[in-house]
Amino acid sequence: MLETLLPILIFAALGLAVIGAWRRIRLWRQGRPSVVPLFKGLAALPRRYLVDLHHVVGRDKVISNTHVATAGGFVAAAVLMILVHGLDLAQGILGWLLLAASACMFVGSLFVARRRRHPPARLSRGPWMRLPKSLMAFSLGVFLITLPTVGLLPSDAGHWLLALLLAAVVAWGLAEMVVGMTWGGPMKHAFAGALHLAFHRRAERFGEGNRSTGLKALDLENEAAPLGVEKPADFTWNQLLGFDACVQCGRCEAVCPAFAAGQPLNPKKLIQDMVVGLAGGSDAAYAGSPYPGKPVGEHHGSPHGPIVGRGGKALVDADTLWSCTTCRACVEECPMMIEHVDAIVDMRRFLTLERGETPNKAPEVLDNLIATDNPGGFAPGSRMNWAADLNLPLMSDLQQVDVLLWLGDGAFDMRNQRTLRALVKVLRAAEVDFAVLGHEERDSGDVARRLGDEATFQSLAKRNIATLDKYRFQQIVTCDPHSFHVLGNEYGELGGVYDVRHHSTYIAELHDAGRLAFSPWKGGSVTYHDPCYLGRYNGEYEAPRRVLEALGIELNEMQRSGFRSRCCGGGGGAPITDIPGERRIPDMRMDDVKESGAALVAVGCPQCTAMLEGVVDATAEVRDIAELVADALVVRPAAQAASLSRQPQLEEVS
Amino acid sequence: MRPEEQGVEVVVLVSVGRHPITGRARRADQDARGLELALGLEARLPGSRIGLLHAGPHREESESALRGYLGMTAGTGLDSLTLLEQAEGADAIPALAEHLAAAPPQLVITGARAERGEGSGLLPYALAEHLGWPLVNGLAAVEKVENGVATLLQALPRGQRRRLKVRLPAIVSVDAAAPAARQSAFGPARRAELEATPVAAELDLELAEWPMVPARKRPKRLKIVKSASARDRFKAAAAKAEGGSGQVLEGVSSEQAAEAIFKLLREEGVLPR
Questions:
Q1: Last residue of one domain, picked from the residues A327, A355, A383
Q2: Nearest to B75 among A310, A366, A455 (CB)
Q3: How far apart are CA B158 and CA A486, in angstroms?
Q4: Residues of A with CB below 8 A from B190's CB?
Q5: Residues of B in contact with A378 (CB under 8 A)
Q6: One domain, residues B95 and B43
Q7: Which of A456, A547, A564, B43 has the smallest number of CB atoms closer than 10 Å to its CB?
């Protein structure tokens, strides 16, 4: 009886899956067009899945192995099942392979079941709790029905009732694993996730060491082009596809600084809300952690309805979007390669550019940027006041130098001025040929862009590019990772391509070239805080550590460091929009520092310095790397210095 | 009988502002507050209509500043501004008065003082004189409009408020006591229309004769606080700014009044002793 029932079941499930796929694809296609190479993307899929995705999944070995066993077993079992039971090609080895695949999947599903016994808070429950049972039903069912096929059991073994029961188990497995893949349910992630990998909006992020972190520019020339995202259908279709790929693993939630601070943001819930939006309905079915302070079930949306309601509630509240510090911790952790920050900034753009609803102090900051080219509203002519006694060379006088020192808006901040002075001292000690733009420099546009004001960003960027185009220099060095990111990764789209370096990178290079010598470190224990815009945005984790090592410092690393570094709370305009939470993000970071036992935390970003120094009763001192280097400078051995200045080409040979 | 609250027709006079530090053109702070007041009124009184009016030359710089006002109108029906196009240096008052008289609104809101040009703060008064309408300065809020009578809240120094009833049409001017202007959004500002109508230029001959020099900071009397304790210093800092030594002269002859003023000026060192 099974021989007749199984092909019917299998092909019915496949048929239903195809219909579901067509419906799902129609949902995604509600989004705006986005041109991606379809066949190239599909061809790149296996590599993106096996290398890039598993690089992220592999950070948790148990889960990674569980997934390999379960998913690998399932894919193999599904294909073989179609051949063996669907097309009745049971001869030879195929049946045995199917037995092995389903057994492998069953072992995997045991680990999934173990995981689900006491799931951590970040995991969603609801339908996900039945997944291990469904996996077992499929694997066990397929295993058992294959036993007679390969001859381990006589084909007429058992009662017909047993056969019917077995068929029901297999049907359950097929419904969850094959039909559920395209009709919704936990297995949707396999279908949407695979296509998302193939048609990802940032194809350039895949591959060893590649990253793609710059925001995409809005087309402001074309007046008909929409400004940001108002409704779910305003996302591009592959963004919608990306949201649909979410597995609700909650890794983003676990690392989100805003969520930890009790601000009303949970990246996982946000992505799920976008899924609710693209399909239409309410968020009542969501079974994970809510936005802190916002009960589930009160929000609803539709593909063509507003995401943020005017006055009333819609899909998402505005303060959720404004809680994000754009630290990219969620993107870094997401095994499905979803781009949360892009989506948040897209929605912020609409709120700022179309509605004029940037919260709290942000309108004032944006007005200042428009009127004075700096967020504090200072007179542009006072940008160089901090350096009145330093006699800094100006680009407008020299026209051509090796290094253009980009000061950033920290030039107006008395704390950052100390860092800048230290950096100038270091550059002079290494006899670097450098100059500054002086009053010609403007804000890089970082804050404006993260606050959604693309118009002000592009205006600042274009004027900065025009200024930079007047001069000749090898590279830009800056002590502000935000400027670094914007100049290096975001000006390119507007026509400004530069070789930009963070000061820690440049100091490391100078030290490697023997142009700096340090006295040995005499202070206490030190830890290093990775700025988001240096680390996750630009992949620079090594250079600051190399500099600190050169200073003779042995680092006391924090638990969350490197790519898992916790944000200081200063990015994305978060200190300006200032959405209330239960704790402050910088306080939590200083607690991390305290836990490491360090008496000093080295930083490399003016924002981090300001945020971490703002913590009361901190146990550690906050110093920029440039300050530590400047304090440790000693005169280079005379002979070396002389040979360097006389024959600079020597350093390249040695 | 329940008094009927009906929508009002408001015209907000807007000018091209000037940022105090960089001098860049922008929406003028007080005029933007005036528009904010009008938008608040529109939200409260359904059926209200707002018009934006500017008289001046049509240039790129001024256009982007004027669009700054239109950027405040997201979510409202307002999407255009009437521009009475004039040559540089023309007198705005006759043009504005003529336009307002041709289709009189019920309420004209304007900032107290322009940020560029003469900036004498006389425009509301001159306009009120031209039109023969009442004028209320330092407006803080429009409380209600009933049967052609508006109940207004006027701001007085040190946070005091005075409630006034004014028969419409009227002109009101706003200063820093009015609600702060909302954010100006790029999208609505870019889409909105400037309806430019050229008007006959009446050259401001007096203005043309005046020499213009950058403003100097005026000398300010230093408050000398002779006090030992922090409490006294705090009281002095929080006290009313006025000196207290002034006197009110009533019913005196003009010679006596002049003598009193002369004496004061000599005491203050403005005139040589």
A1: A355
A2: A310
A3: 46
A4: 223
A5: 21
A6: yes
A7: B43
State pLDDT tens for residues A594-647. Answer: 999 999 999 999 999 999 999 999 999 999 999 999 999 998 765 454 444 444
- Asked whether residue A265 is domain-assigned, the answer is yes
Q: How confident is the model at residue A325 (pLDDT cuts 50, 70, 90)?
A: very high
Interchain CB contact of B23 with A (< 8 Å): no
- The answer to whether B75 faces chain A, any CB pair under 8 Å, is yes
Question: Same domain for B254 and B124?
Answer: no
Exposed (0-12), middle (13-18) or buried (19+): which is B159, by Cβ within 10 Å? exposed
Last residue of a domain, one of B162, B177, B209: B209
Q: A151 and A96 share a domain?
A: yes
**What residues contact residue B49 under an 8 Å CB cut-off, 6+ apart?**
B7, B8, B9, B10, B42
| Whether B27 and B48 share a structural domain | yes
> Is residue B260 domain-shared with residue B150, that is, in the same domain?
no
What are the chain A neighbours of B27 within 8 Å (beta carbons)?
none
CA distance B70 to chain A (A): 11
Q: Which pTM value belongs to this model? A: 0.91
In sequence order, which residues have a C-beta less than 8 Å from that of residue A559 and are 6 or more positions away?
A592, A595, A596
Task: State whether B71 and B205 are in the same domain.
Answer: yes
The answer to whether residues B38 and B31 touch, using CB atoms and an 8 Å cutoff, is no
**Total number of residues shown for chain A:** 654
Same domain for A386 and A434, yes or no, is yes
Among B19, B75, B183, beta carbon nearest to A358? B183
Could you give the number of structural domains in chain A? Answer: 3
- B88: domain range? 9-209
Which class for A191: exposed (0-12), middle (13-18), buried (19 or more C-beta within 10 A)?
A: buried
**Are residues A566 and A624 in contact, defined by beta-carbon separation less than 8 angstroms?**
no
**What DSSP designation does A538 have?**
T
Do B175 and B246 share a domain, yes or no?
no
**Of A163, A186, A209, which closes a domain?**
A186
Q: Are A375 and A404 part of one and the same domain?
A: yes
The answer to whether residue B64 is domain-embedded is yes
3-state secondary structure of A508: helix
- Taking an 8 Å cut-off on Cβ atoms, the answer to whether A380 and B184 are in contact is no
Contact between chains at B185 and A355 (C-beta distance less than 8 A): yes
**C-alpha distance from B71 to closest chain A C-alpha (Å):** 8
Whole-number Å distance between alpha carbons of A506 and A476: 10
Residues in chain B, total: 273
Shared domain for A302 and A372, answered yes or no, is no
Cβ–Cβ below 8 Å for A363 and B26 = no
The CATH number covering residue B20 comes to 3.40.50.620
Q: How confident is the model at residue B75 (pLDDT cuts 50, 70, 90)?
A: confident
* CA of A168 vs chain B CAs: smallest distance (Å): 57
Instruction: State the nearest Cα–Cα gap between B61 and chain A, in angstroms.
Output: 13
DSSP class of A20:
H
Tens digits of per-residue pLDDT, B146-186?
888 999 999 998 788 999 999 989 999 999 999 999 999 99
Tokens for A555, please give them: 């680092």
- Contact between A371 and B187 using a beta-carbon 8 Å cutoff: no
CA dist A468 and A440 (Å) reads 9
The tally of domains found in chain B comes to 2
Contacts of B25 by beta carbon, 8 Å cutoff, 6+ apart: B16, B17, B18, B19, B61, B62, B64, B65
Is B94 within 8 Å of chain A by CB?
no
Same domain? For B176 and B230 the reply is no
B181 within domain boundaries: yes
Does the beta-carbon distance from A353 to B187 stay under 8 Å?
A: yes
Domain that includes residue A260, residue range: 229-355
Question: Is residue B30 located within the same domain as residue B155?
Answer: yes
